[in-house]
Specification:
Elements: H1 2-44, E1 55-59, E2 69-72, E3 77-82, E4 85-90, E5 101-103, E6 106-108, E7 115-116, E8 122-124, E9 133-138, E10 144-152, E11 158-159
Antiparallel strand pairs: 1-10, 2-3, 3-4, 4-9, 4-11, 5-6, 6-7, 7-8, 9-10
Bound molecules: FE2/S2 (inorganic) cluster.
FE2/S2 (inorganic) cluster (FES) is lined by residues 93, 95-96, 98, 109, 111-114, 125-127.
């Protein structure tokens, strides 16, 4: 009887410990599954500006000579200057989000060959819609500022 009581006392904490370890490893598996899906979520979530603000300055108008189409890849915009008019066109492909580059006829996507005219309208490939145009304003300090949260109608330029 005394032996049994001793055995009981010595095995109970053992079982408790096993259960606790099993619970811990279950928690570990659930935890890593949760972390994994969180990582997947952040990986596949389109982040158009690499975490940078959607409103940013790009320099003074005279840094963009007339006739130039200058792509700023980290910001995913192309600054277009024609005479005294300036515009910011998205360089994120409307197919699967690759960064497109200005070409002789407009824009070209290196991923699946979508093509766009100089205004960003689709002229070929799988892209389902035109490239976005973003509002450009002149700050009091004389710098151009692009606001990617403010999509405007294709062909709307800022006069500088
Ligand atoms: S991502 Fe541009 S064509 Fe597919």
């Amino acid at each position: 009887m005394g032996m049994t009581a001793t055995e009981t006392r010595s095995t109970e904490p053992q079982i408790g410990r096993r259960r606790f370890l099993a619970w811990l490893s279950g928690l570990g598996i659930a935890g890593s599954a949760a972390l994994g899906s969180l990582a997947t979520f952040f990986f596949i979530r389109p982040r158009t500006t690499y975490g940078q603000p959607n409103r940013f300055k790009i320099g003074r108008p005279d840094e963009f000579p007339s006739g130039s189409r200058i792509a700023i890849d980290p910001k995913r915009v192309c600054i277009v200057r024609e005479g005294n008019k300036v515009a910011a066109i998205s360089t994120t492909c409307t197919h699967l989000g690759c960064i497109i580059a200005p070409s002789a006829t407009g824009f070209q996507c290196p991923c699946h060959g979508s093509r766009f005219d100089v205004d960003g309208n689709v002229t070929g490939g799988p892209a389902p819609k035109a490239l976005a145009w973003y509002a450009v304003t002149l700050t009091p300090s004389g710098e151009l500022e692009v606001d990617k949260d403010n999509e405007i109608q294709t062909g709307t330029y800022l006069s500088v």
